[in-house]
Amino acid sequence: MSESDRVAGPPGEVPVTGIGTAEASPRVRNTKGSYLATKLAYNIGRLHGLRLRLYLYRRIGMKVGKGCVIRRGVYLGSPNELEVGEGSFVGRASLYCTGGVKIGRNVNVSDGAVIITAKHDVNSPIFEAKYEPITIGDWAWIATNTIVLAGVTIGEGAVVAAGAVVTKDVPAYSVVGGNPAKVIGERKRQPFDYVPGSYRPPFL
């Protein structure tokens, strides 16, 4: 994705706070460490007990802030490349994090969302895989059945409507929808007073 293709946006307990713009260089290939972490996370994600799952996720290299919920049944590819800020909620989504995923504070990632840092070079004779980081700002909402593609930054307070396919950066406090996602509205800028991670559904 070239810069001209983007939509310009405004500029134990692991203490994870706000998330800035991703600056990491794209990764060219997966690693053995990520592969192992993925296999372990698959089994961890099916265990009952939120505290147990979070403890084990941290043990395999995932960074999780205080007060987070990561629901049972989530798929986490390369969880050692995932960072989740305080108070965030991750539903039964699919996160392919090999290129690096940073989720800010008080973010809601709904069930069915797909966040994928991998892509292929269609002009490569070997169909080369590349990985680009994804950043999701504080207070953002990634709604049900959305798809967020490699290299995208979603701004603070932004809303990605259900079913949207995000191919470009999303400005802060905007509401985007459709395929490809386009700005369809604006979110009111105000002091938010909710913590998605405080929601504890039964049999968590």
The coarse silhouette is: globular
* Strand residues, percent: 25-35%
Helix content: 10-25%
Number of helices: 2
Rounded mean pLDDT is 88
Low-confidence stretches: 1-23
* Major β-sheet strand ordering: 2-5-8-13-16-18-19
Structural class: alpha/beta
Determine the N-to-C terminus distance. 38 Å
Largest sheet: 7 strands, mixed
What is the element string, with H for helices and E for strands? Answer: HHEEEEEEEEEEEEEEEEEEE
Number of strands: 19
Rg calc: 16 Å
Report what the structure shows.
The chain is an alpha/beta fold and 204 residues long. Helices cover 11% and strands 25% of the residues. It has two helices and 19 strands. The strands form four sheets. Strands 2-5-8-13-16-18-19 form a seven-stranded mixed beta sheet. It has a five-stranded parallel beta sheet with strand order 1-4-7-12-15, with helices on one face. A hairpin with an 8-residue loop joins strand 10 and strand 11 (129-131).
Q: Gist?
A:
By secondary structure, the protein is an alpha/beta fold. The chain contains 2 helices and 19 strands.
Topology record:
Blueprint: H1 32-44, H2 50-59, E1 63-64, E2 69-70, E3 75-77, E4 82-84, E5 89-90, E6 94-96, E7 101-103, E8 108-109, E9 114-116, E10 118-120, E11 129-131, E12 134-136, E13 141-142, E14 147-148, E15 153-154, E16 159-160, E17 165-166, E18 174-177, E19 182-186
Parallel strand pairs: 1-4, 2-5, 3-6, 4-7, 5-8, 6-9, 7-12, 8-13, 9-14, 12-15, 13-16, 14-17, 16-18
Antiparallel strand pairs: 10-11, 18-19
